[in-house]
Amino acid sequence: MGVTRRDFIKIAGAAVASSGMGACQLTPAALAAQAGSGPAETYVATNCEMCHWCCGLIAKVVDGKVVKLDGNPLHPNSRGKLCARGNSGIGLLYDPDRVKTPLIRTGSRGDGKYKKASWDEALNYVAEKMLSIKKVYGPEAMALFAVGSCSAHLAPLMAAFGSQNFGKPSFAQCRGARDVGYELTYGIIPGAPERVDLAKSKVTVLFGSHLGENVHNSQVQDFAAGIGAQAKLIVIDPRYSTAAGKAAYWLPIKPGTDMALMLAWINIIIKHELYDKEYVEQYTTGFEELKAAVADCTPEWAARETDLPVKQIIETVMEVARYRPNVCIHPGRHASWYGNDVQRSRCLAILTAILGSWGREGGLYLPTKASLKKSQGKEDFPIPEKKPIMDICGYPFASMAGLTNGSTTGLRDATITGKPYPIKGWMVMGTNILKAMPNEKETMDAINNLDLLVTAEVMPLDTAMVSDVILPSASYLEQFDDIGVERGYHLGVTMGRAAVQPLYESKDGYTIARELAKKLGLADYFPWESLEAKIKSQCKLWKIDYDELSKKGFMEMEGTEAPYITAENQPVFKTPSGKIELYSKRLEKAGFDPIPKYTPVEQPKEDYFRLIYGRSPVHSFTRTTNNPLLHDLFKENEVWISAKKAKALGVKHGQYVTLVNQDGVKSNRVKAKVTQRIREDCVYMVHGFSSSSKDLRNAYRKGADDQGLITRYAVDPICGATGMRVNFVKVVKEV
Amino acid sequence: MPRYAMVIDQRRCVGCMACVAACKTENNVPLGSFRTRVVEVVGGEFPNLRMELRSELCNHCENPPCAYNCPTGASYKESDGTVQIKRYKCVGCKACIAACPYEARYIDDKGVADKCSFCEHRIKQGKEPACVATCLGGSRIFGDLDDPNSPVSKILSEVGSSVLLKEAGTNPKVFYIRKLSKLE
Amino acid sequence: MEITITGANELTYPTLHIWNWMVSLYLFLGGVTAGLLIMSAIGNLRARNLRTEEKIDVIKAAMFAPFVLMAGMFFIWLDLERKLNSYWFFLSFSFTSPMSWGGWGLGLILPLSMLYALSVVPEEYRHWLKFDFLKNLSRWLNPHMTALARTVFALGIFLGIYTGILLSVFVARPLWNSSLLPVLFLTSALSTGAALIIIISKKKAAQLFFTKVDIWLISAEIIIIALFFLGHLTSTAPQRESVMPFFSYSHEYFVFGLSFILIAFFFPLALVMKLMHVQEEHHEQISGGSLFRMKLSAYMVLAGGFIIRLAWVYVGQISKLS
Ligand SMILES: Nc1nc2c(c(=O)[nH]1)N[C@H]1C(S)=C(S)[C@@H](COP(=O)(O)OP(=O)(O)OC[C@H]3O[C@@H](n4cnc5c(=O)[nH]c(N)nc54)[C@H](O)[C@@H]3O)O[C@H]1N2
Ligand SMILES: Nc1nc2c(c(=O)[nH]1)N[C@H]1C(S)=C(S)[C@@H](COP(=O)(O)OP(=O)(O)OC[C@H]3O[C@@H](n4cnc5c(=O)[nH]c(N)nc54)[C@H](O)[C@@H]3O)O[C@H]1N2
Ligand code: SF4
Ligand code: SF4
Ligand code: SF4
Ligand code: SF4
Ligand code: SF4
Ligand SMILES: [Mo]
């Protein structure tokens, strides 16, 4: 096993300083004390990967150990600050439970029995399996699930191998549906980082989007700056989120009915002629059709659907209209809610358009038009004989222009059924698919059909622990981060240096991809011996000073910003019509509603609650749950239940309960948070808890796993993203 | 001599907890102990609720009961107005912990009493305290009360503020700008 | 109100728990020492001209005192987190810190109580003292017994009050923050001191004397406790809240409720038994039952004194200002 009992005790023993208090007191420095020593204090610029926001950071390294992380002041995503997770990156680097050596499974899948292997052994094993899969089923039978900076190296490897079956839960289970909705409307996505001009908006509208708990660094900075500048905040959330706590208006909406509210707002804005006429005239198509389509969406109707007072619906939309165009209708990020998510995102896009706030101060700003193109290296990947699954899995917009991450569940289905063709090998890196995709059983069914599951991991998380081979990955602090182009407000170039050498036997993502490529006979695609060498040659190509870039971590190209619409700076919409498509002919042609229509979602039966979920400000999904520093701040999630319902059920605050879903699946025990802060028809928890991995001393079976309870999911027919808020649970007292 | 103080603009705190995490690594605070925390208080009944987010730390009291009760002089008031600890003098009697009405103190892994130092080592280098530097909300403001142009003096002269447990007579130097969210 | 804290200190949240039974025991033994010193000083001063036989109990009491004190000091030393830094107690003095006063006070009381103990050893018992220099010292000190007894009498009062002041200065802990606490601890110190003498004594006269003394002290103690609670219950909200654990028999506070019951039971019962004892003593020979009652009531006073220290140390840490 990766971490044996003996290691555990050894490391714990070394790290724990005794004290009269009797408590086991571990300090961050004691955590770091395991590493070797080197030269004195240095500062290294790199990028944070505690979540997907990719903030620039400066690592302070003393005697070969990272002792402090600070935000890189030059980097637009961090601006000198890091969030709680970013600040606690040392806890990942020096987590004693890390995967330390390559491991090959010896027991049956899931029982956690592995033998230590050399890199050579492990990679030979993987290469042999891959080649035999290729021989029998064709190269397309390999699929890649990869997220984060390291995926940049595995995707070309897989493409070179002959497969373009890529899946990203951070897309299909995240913002995929939103991006498709905006792409259909504007021909361009709202960006990641989202181009929300929160610092300057006069009114900010959040549907879900629990900023403050959802901590995407610079976005939260802007959010707070907006609040500081007296922006009015309208928060639509069945739960009194932190953002709701800051809001002028909190609309505790009945879950799943948001579209009714949005359509009613659109109707009111149009009916009372509160929209931006010039803007609509100049930049949009299909306004008349929109007007007709929403004509029956009255506030009274919306009030019935959403369980909100008519007065509140009208009052809030009046505030929004009053301050247009300097209002930000936040496009959201995690959009896979109910399976109608493209259309809900379309509603947000349409609202933004008729308020004229796309390309306006305080709304959504425009991306820079400047770019740095020319890339290097061998890119003549073989064209797969069989089309990628996402192109043929029945969701017409699963691979919309530029959105190449497709449907994760499509790949899973193919693996289970063998249709349209068999998938026999999965390579996983930077994502914990078992916990990121809905219905863990289906994921396991698919995995049980595989000839090869190889996971490159930093931590022995759930997916790793059901893999055939586990490859020890360097964390972001131990590896270079590829040179990248940021096209947000400005054009910028980013890269990261390794703050310390990879610990244990771990290797960086580029090296793993390159060494595997060698074994597969694909070495041509990885001509640079290290990522650093690759970055240096790219710098030459772009005429950027490598030394300067590697020292700064981020270089902004001055004068490249063009955020707001002016006579000279006209927005570009890459839609067929070249305009904002309020009415979508593309959707119409594919057989979908060209203008979003409201369809009610199923509501919970008696005794059941809808299960909704979200974020803790101090954790990222599953990846941080074992981090000693973050565990210290938030040890296990709780299930939020309305005080009224709790009283009826006899559940007390702090008491352990279990949740049982509509299909009889039971959760691990979880503490009840009995609160006024949530509607009576739903319960809420933070995603990512209750790991099944025994090798995680802090995370193993702590709290409840929302994903385990998400056995049902609603696939968005337009793009194949999965809505995951369609499960109902009973709250059962622990006996 | 400066007189250092902090202002917590509660209106801008978004509960991100970056301050808590930054303080921990900056000052190598043991697991289970903290120099700063964020208290979230929610009152009212659904759906008429209000929320207060309040980050707390050592108040660097003008009348510090912790220092008054320290038998060895390990806890003392520095000339810059901060309350500090001479580690070598601490016997670990915990009188200071009992004396602090703000529960600002803990015993570290060496058995020495510890607490927020206003990041003494950073301010000496002209940097802001770690929690201030990383505060995503821009809610924590640091500076010299005796300098009318410092950010703390400026904001205190513009907006009303209060201190915690005024009745304890400690005369805190952490000031709170409160404003509970109001529902309309 | 729903309160969620991120970054709460394990040591102070949900309640302070820096001090445990070791501190209670220190306060208790300190109190007993104070009582022994005061009682024996009175005894030795009053019995100056009596035969050794007749004053043997107060002599023993004086000799007990330094040992009890050392035991107490051992426990407070055990509680220190940085034991090796203890010398700083004596390299500094802080006027505002009762603990600093206490440190110096103990540093003074311990040797003086030893000298006092040596000074009261009568000629015929000097062979108890193992070493010659002790015998010599004792012989040399004997003439100064009166002065020493007066000194330790004063120091005993200081010690008894100090154990209470130590806690009462903490404005942050409303249960402790009361000027009645030093008075309560001093009274308790005296009564436990008297009780210990009753236990170690073999002399009927002494027992009777100290039982009579104890009757007054216990009566005073009961009144002070009642006043203490009355004061807190009619004071500010934090003070009112602070005594609640004594009256709430909920699961988490059960032991404190129990301690209150024990205190409320032991003292009156001890008082009644002592009164009976005193009454009996006037016309009868001491009976077996009476002897048992007398000793039992003394043990009860001791137990009650210790329970008070335990309860106050623990419950005081639950109390807070906000
Ligand atoms: N600290 C931290 N921050 C993160 C992340 C993290 O892991 N940790 N992850 C990042 C990523 S990748 C993403 S995608 C985002 C996700 O964060 P968001 O994009 O903000 O996610 P949402 O699902 O929009 O918001 C969750 C909120 O929606 C509410 N909600 C549930 N159902 C409904 C409903 O039917 N209608 C409405 N109006 N509200 C509902 C919930 O009560 C909850 O408050 O967070 C990002 N930020
Ligand atoms: N039920 C439910 N499901 C969800 C969500 C939800 O809220 N609820 N949220 C959805 C959303 S919005 C998203 S974005 C996805 C996120 O889903 P994922 O991206 O899968 O997120 P994590 O669970 O953090 O898993 C990341 C994995 O990558 C590993 N890892 C981290 N850094 C590195 C590295 O540098 N190298 C390597 N090799 N591995 C690394 C971590 O140890 C961890 O196992 O989940 C989606 N799924
Ligand atoms: S938002 Fe936080 S966790 Fe995410 S990259 Fe930035 S600092 Fe790291
Ligand atoms: S807050 Fe507490 S620790 Fe800080 S100076 Fe005041 S009393 Fe001392
Ligand atoms: S614990 Fe240390 S700092 Fe605190 S009062 Fe005792 S000696 Fe002073
Ligand atoms: S000032 Fe420094 S020590 Fe004090 S809370 Fe902030 S980071 Fe921690
Ligand atoms: S860092 Fe600032 S905004 Fe975030 S919780 Fe702390 S005080 Fe509040
Ligand atoms: Mo996401």
Explain what this protein looks like in three dimensions:
The complex is a heterotrimer of chains A (735), B (184) and C (322). Chain A has 735 residues and is α/β, with parallel strands linked by helices. Chain A has 26 helices and 27 strands. Chain A has a seven-stranded mixed beta sheet with strand order 5-4-15-14-13-6-7, sandwiched between helices. In chain A, strands 21-23-22-27-20-24 form a six-stranded mixed beta sheet. In chain A, strand 25 and strand 26 form a beta hairpin. In chain A, helix 7 (169-186) packs across helix 15 (341-354), helix 10 (258-271) runs antiparallel to helix 13 and helix 10 crosses helix 14. Chain B has 184 residues and is an alpha+beta fold. Chain B is 20% helix and 23% strand. A three-stranded mixed beta sheet of chain B has the order 8-1-9. Chain B has a two-stranded antiparallel ribbon with strand order 2-3. A two-stranded antiparallel ribbon of chain B has the order 4-5. With 322 residues, chain C is an all-alpha fold. The model of chain C has no long low-confidence stretch (mean pLDDT 92). Classes of the chains: A alpha/beta (735), B alpha+beta (184), C mainly alpha (322). The interface between A and B is large, with 66 and 48 residues. The site of one iron/sulfur cluster has 14 residues of chain B, from helix 1. Molybdenum atom (MO) binds next to helix 7 of chain A.
Rg on CA atoms of chain A, Å: 25 Å
Number of strands of chain A: 27
Helix content of chain B: 10-25%
Counting DSSP E segments of at least 2 residues, the number of strands of chain B comes to 9
Task: Considering residues with a beta carbon less than 8 A from a beta carbon on another chain, report the largest interface and each chain's count.
Answer: A-B, 66 and 48 residues
**What is the beta-strand fraction of chain B?**
15-25%
| Mean pLDDT over all positions of chain A | 93
Note the main sheet of chain B. Answer: 3 strands, mixed
How many helices of chain B? The count is 6
Instruction: Give the ordered list of helices and strands of chain B.
Output: EHEEHEEHEEHHEHE
Oligomer: heterotrimer
Distance between the termini of chain A: 34 Å
The order of strands across the largest sheet of chain B is 8-1-9
The portion of residues assigned to helices of chain A is 25-40%
* CA gyration radius of chain B, whole angstroms: 16 Å
Sketch the major β-sheet of chain A.
7 strands, mixed
What overall geometry of chain B do the principal axes of the alpha carbons give? globular
* Binned strand content of chain A: 15-25%
